[in-house]
Amino acid sequence: MQTRRHTKVTPDWHRWIGEALANGSAPAELLATMKEHQFDERVAREAIADSVFGGVAPPPSGDAQASDFVSRLPAGHVIHTPDRDIRVLVRVARPVIAVLDNVLDAAECDGMIALARSRLARSAVVAPDSGSNTVMDIRTSEGAYFHRAESELVQRIDARTAAIMQLPEEHGEGLQVMRYGVGGEYMPHYDYFAPDQKGSAPHIASGGQRVSTLIMYLDDAQAGGETIFPRIDFSYVPRKGQGLYFEYAAADGSLDPLSLHGGAPVVAGEKWIVTKWMRERAFAG
């Protein structure tokens, strides 16, 4: 007889997660313990992510309707940019998500990987309390950061992503390339800065809140490595040259907790991505 998995995390378990993290336990250790106690893995990951990253709790049923989060993307099946047309393959209303084709060509994908290889370093996350970039095992990738327009290829992608995301280039953070090897993952998290965490203040002060993300896939992951949105049961399988666009900040400043997302563990091969984040205002990227 198959054991039924827990699909809700009680206040006592939330308290345990917070205390364990405060005492230095690694998120991976907490996940293993919760799985041993028959928690559904997705539910456990989400609860741990909420404790690590904070953010907005899921809204009660009926609150924050989809109409509150209106996409910046133009309507239709094609987005026109200065140098190519981008095909829209899939749209999701809430959270705002779009799967895009023809974002990068094969030469651009290979070129970004080549530029990044010699600059890769262990990826960090923003620490909730201090705001500093901190290495944590919730994100097991290597990354390389590129200032805006630092090369012809980077400048071309900066201009194209700005046109896709419908915001000025100056609002964009620099491109960040990330490589995930076998077992590499990024546990569910928010891309926006949690307003109730003091570590967010210095980031919001420089360029304002993050409002949207475009993940561009530089290779076809052999197995695993999906980008997941656990609160809506949405999963995207990496495909070279495509992009996954999503938004999480409404015009009134509301933040969408349904944008919780993560990178599933890579099972075979490598996963390479390059990400563009956009801010409310001009950012010194």
Outline of this structure?
The chain has 285 residues and is α+β, with helices and mostly antiparallel strands. It is 23% helix and 26% strand. The protein has two domains: 53 residues; 217 residues, q2cbj1_9rhob like domain (Jelly Rolls), CATH 2.60.120.620.
Provide key terms for this protein.
17 strands, 9-stranded antiparallel β-sheet, Jelly Rolls, 2 domains, 285 residues, alpha+beta, 4-stranded antiparallel β-sheet, globular, single chain, 6 helices
Tell me about this structure.
GO terms for molecular function: iron ion binding; L-ascorbic acid binding; procollagen-proline 4-dioxygenase activity. Residues 171-280 form the Fe2OG dioxygenase domain. Keywords: Dioxygenase, Iron, Metal-binding, Oxidoreductase, Vitamin C. InterPro entries: Oxoglu/Fe-dep_dioxygenase_dom, P4HA-like, Pro_4_hyd_alph, Pro_4_hyd_alph_FE2OG_OXY. Its cofactor is L-ascorbate. This protein has 285 residues and is of the alpha+beta class. It folds into two domains: 1-53; 63-279, q2cbj1_9rhob like domain (Jelly Rolls), CATH 2.60.120. Helix content is 23%, strand content 26%. The chain is built from six helices and 17 strands. The chain has helices spanning 11-22, 27-36, 41-53, 106-117, 152-165, 201-205, and strands spanning 78-80, 85-92, 97-101, 121-122, 125-126, 133-134, 142-146, 175-180, 186-189, 210-217, 223-224, 227-229, 234-236, 243-247, 261-263, 266-268, 271-279. Strands 1-2-3-14-10-17-8-7-4 form a nine-stranded antiparallel beta sheet, with helices on one face. Strands 9-15-12-13 form a four-stranded antiparallel beta sheet. A two-stranded antiparallel sheet has the order 5-6. A hairpin with a 4-residue loop joins β2 (85-92) and β3. α1 packs across α3 and α2 packs antiparallel against α3 (41-53). The chain is globular, with a radius of gyration of 18 Å. 39% of the residues are buried. The model is unreliable at 55-64 (pLDDT under 50).
